[in-house]
């Protein structure tokens, strides 16, 4: 499961490794290891040999700028495992065939992705492309400390649903998934099924402030559970005890998805 802090850490790793190198190939493979069309209409030769001139991110999208012109956008959120493999490529036949997307950057660097809807995660953008999918996204929560909470405050004022559903909606904040949504609500001491309309002014501010606070803390902790503060719920998803009161954590279905929360500390 890839959420915003993990995706940003991956982007940083990718930037260090791939900047100013050239794309080798882009292959989508089925379970037999056969190359199949990408599904997004990107021909292999559209990216082959192009120099990676920038790598940046917005929400769960990572953008590879190619030759300062076109942009290869990859949606990294949701059910996706990604790994960066360095070193010479293993000789053909020595590797188990597996389904996935592989982007070879040069002979010594390959990006592997495994997960759902791999083909439709790719887009090659130029100045004529339809970028509605980007303009529909809410403010990037890792950039919120710079831009202030005003845009989120305004967006929240138009929402009526449960807070956890609002957090999982990319048009409110992109890239927040189950784990960090639960943490934001725990730190804000608000139940996952509290509705936006039930909050007073102070509750709304507490909720909004925790969005960038939790995500940037997760990023600084390299999204590694042992490095998170002891006061974080995320450290206790396995043992099921609230780090604040010691009580048992509970599960709650909100909008068809299951949230973890403390019924005593979150009201
Ligand atoms: Zn508690």
Structure description:
There is one protein chain. Helix content is 26%, strand content 22%. The chain has 267 residues and is an alpha+beta fold. The protein has two domains: 4-135, MutM-like, N-terminal (N-terminal domain of MutM-like DNA repair proteins); 144-261, Helicase, Ruva Protein, domain 3 (Orthogonal Bundle). The strands form three sheets. Strands 2-1-7-8-6 form a five-stranded antiparallel sheet, covered by helices on one side. A four-stranded antiparallel sheet has the order 3-4-5-9, with helices on one face. A hairpin with a 5-residue loop joins β1 and β2 (35-36). It is globular, with a radius of gyration of 20 Å. Bound molecules: zinc ion. Zinc ion binds at residues 242, 244-245, 247, 262, 264-265. Zinc ion is lined by residues 242, 244-245, 247, 262, 264-265.
Summarize this entry quickly.
The protein has 267 residues and is an alpha+beta fold. It contains 8 helices and 11 strands. It folds into 2 domains: 132 residues, N-terminal domain of MutM-like DNA repair proteins (Alpha-Beta Barrel), CATH 3.20.190.10; 118 residues, Helicase, Ruva Protein, domain 3.
